[in-house]
Amino acid sequence: MEGKRQVYFDNAATSWPKPPEVAAAVSSFISDVGANPGRSAHSLSIEASGVLYDARELAAKFFNLADTQRCIFTLNATTAINLVFKGLLRPGDHVITSGVEHNAVMRPLRALERGGVEVTVLNCAPYGHLDSEAVEHAIKPNTKLVTLNHASNVTGTLLPIREVGRMCRAHGVPFMVDSAQTAGSVRIDMEADNIDLLVFAGHKSLLGPQGVGGVAIGGGVDFSRIEPLVRGGTGSGSEVEEQPNFLPDMFEAGTPNTPGISGLAAGITFVLSVGIEEIRAHELELTRMLLGCLREMPQVEILGDPDPETRVATVSFNLRGISPSEVGFRLDDEFGVLCRTGLHCSPATHKTLGTFPRGAVRFGLGYFSTEDEIDYATESLKKIAGDSN
């Protein structure tokens, strides 16, 4: 349809649009710096190292990580998760997770399970809520890690990370949080939230470009027990053929995505300039509005808790009598509403919700979403639902 409006509701996958400062930072690094950080002694390499240092310091401060060097940059959150799992867990170890995890968690855990790691997946309530006491009851002498997402990428449901973290501290078990759906839109404080390992995605609510993420390793974690996922050149200790045993070099082999990291720093700076509380309040209001509009449609089945306070700005639903894929196709093709359909790389969540293998339609709102877009998208849904009657 020529001149068709476009509404982007796929922020749970990757945020868009980005603040102009993000593209400017990426472009500036490529145009004005361009060198490899830490690999040379010339002025541009030193400047590139400064960009990396400043971004690391900014990210560490953002999550209240005391030791800047413990903020490790990776290609994405998935790589960071694999770094922790494959580096920390050994045959005979026990790990606890929830029934609403992304495949970025479940697939490496299932692979490790085949190699002798014991995996406990805790059941969640139909809305996706997790009873924190269930975690404590599941802890055993050989439990080496508890890992939870901060919010489901399907229902948006927030999990009780602070309470779980407190229990893990009491039992001396490291606690990892996957903040892919929350970092940048919900305040995260590693100390106050009792988080030992925080995985983050740069390209979602932190508003950075794709191709950058990381893991913040708390001061209570003995990082020497974590085997590097990738070994290679770091620009340091080049006289030896063993991986450096200090941070961040131990976990950052190879040329980093410095343009992307520069963009991530610009995204975090933008988030700080607006304020996490302001972003959260705006997204809560949008979520409240969207849920209200969907509840007015008798054909709509909403997944997750109806209370917006318990979730991030991600809302999944189904239209009775129409497959999610058809709804998503028509929203895009006829109305220009871009969303995600299917299982959202989280079959465990859909099994918990009773929507496996059908899946659902997901609207992922973001800071740049508007009330007018919600009106337009829900009116488009009404037309699709009306056509099916």
Task: List the main descriptive attributes of the protein structure presented here.
2 domains; seven-stranded mixed β-sheet; four-stranded antiparallel β-sheet; 389 residues; alpha/beta; 13 strands; Aspartate Aminotransferase, domain 1; Aspartate Aminotransferase, domain 2
What does this structure look like?
The mean pLDDT is 96. With 389 residues, this protein is of the alpha/beta class. The protein has two domains: 7-18 and 275-388, Aspartate Aminotransferase, domain 1 (Alpha-Beta Complex); 20-273, Type I PLP-dependent aspartate aminotransferase-like (Major domain) (Aspartate Aminotransferase, domain 2), CATH 3.40.640.10. Helix 5 runs parallel beside helix 6. The strands form three sheets. It has a seven-stranded mixed beta sheet with strand order 2-8-7-6-5-3-4, sandwiched between helices. 39% of the residues lie in helices and 14% in strands.
